[in-house]
Amino acid sequence: MKYFRNITAAFGLMVSGFMFSQVKPLDAMLSDYKYPYEVHFLNFKSQDEDLKMAYMDVQPQKPNGKTIMLLHGKNFNGAYWEKTAKDLSAKGFRVVIPDQIGFGKSSKPHAYQFSFSQLAENTKAVLDELKIDKAIILGHSMGGMVAARFTLLYPEKVQKLILENPIGLEDYKTFASYQTIDKAYQSELKNTAETYKNYQLKSYYDNKWKEEYQPWLDLVAGWTLHKDYPQVAWDAALTTDMIYNQPVCYELKNIKVPTLLIIGTRDRTAIGKDRAPKELQSKMGQYQVLGKKTQQEIAGSELVELDNVGHLPHIEVYPKFFEALYHFIQ
């Protein structure tokens, strides 16, 4: 396997008719990967650990007085918000983009008790550090679960809430059997550039690959080629456990701030689907149903459905995504 990974890194890999770009090994903190905007770090102590939380703070040339915070998904980091941040900044918004603890350029602690409440608290600490009293909160995928928990805990800090194909709109425990963290860790260790690309092709892009998707594959694939990968894989296992065991779907009805749901209806993302009985697998991650159900639960919320779009609207169909977003927040 080590030989295979070295060959992959050096020459690229042909899979299902697609050629991987040259994937470079990346350490746990992405030290050699340049983010699109200047990276700052919030140093703080949490759960008896000294941690660093990375964030970008994009300042507009002509401020409109509003701040928007962009929260990334589980298989991503703040870098994939580059175009969104650029266009929001051009419209006058201050854009704050954190990497959650365990992700991107932030610390990868080993003995950390991951919870959405803890991630929400860490997120609030970034806003407090920047002396931002209130912000628009946008969360994608797992970031949607963080955004929902943040809004439930600190509604006074949230001007508006946007959920872009959030996971956690259903309780995965009611479908799939439990997987121990140790087993999840062993599964994470098996990831390669090939497995990540196959997953993204199937789950995100309906088996249609475009060159602009490559950077978001290279980031996660690069980790698998570095000696730090066990550290990254461990935190990935912990956060998978968090998602499975800490549903937010039962409390979405308690959200009172103005809310927009941007839903790609082709998405079928669901945690633990491979562990669910076959007769239940097809019922998981039905976003064309979950979007409507959630819009009914959050009083006064708006729903924009993007037909035949997968898990990543702001990558797959950016113009449609941004149109929906800007219409809601301008």
From TrEMBL:
<dbReference type="InterPro" id="IPR050266">
    <property type="entry name" value="AB_hydrolase_sf"/>
</dbReference>
<feature type="domain" description="AB hydrolase-1">
    <location>
        <begin position="67"/>
        <end position="269"/>
    </location>
</feature>
<feature type="signal peptide">
    <location>
        <begin position="1"/>
        <end position="21"/>
    </location>
</feature>
<dbReference type="GO" id="GO:0047372">
    <property type="term" value="F:monoacylglycerol lipase activity"/>
</dbReference>
<keyword id="KW-0378">Hydrolase</keyword>
<dbReference type="GO" id="GO:0016020">
    <property type="term" value="C:membrane"/>
</dbReference>
<keyword id="KW-0732">Signal</keyword>
<dbReference type="Pfam" id="PF00561">
    <property type="entry name" value="Abhydrolase_1"/>
</dbReference>
<dbReference type="InterPro" id="IPR000073">
    <property type="entry name" value="AB_hydrolase_1"/>
</dbReference>
<dbReference type="InterPro" id="IPR000639">
    <property type="entry name" value="Epox_hydrolase-like"/>
</dbReference>
<dbReference type="GO" id="GO:0046464">
    <property type="term" value="P:acylglycerol catabolic process"/>
</dbReference>
<dbReference type="InterPro" id="IPR029058">
    <property type="entry name" value="AB_hydrolase_fold"/>
</dbReference>
<protein>
    <submittedName>
        <fullName>Alpha/beta hydrolase</fullName>
    </submittedName>
</protein>
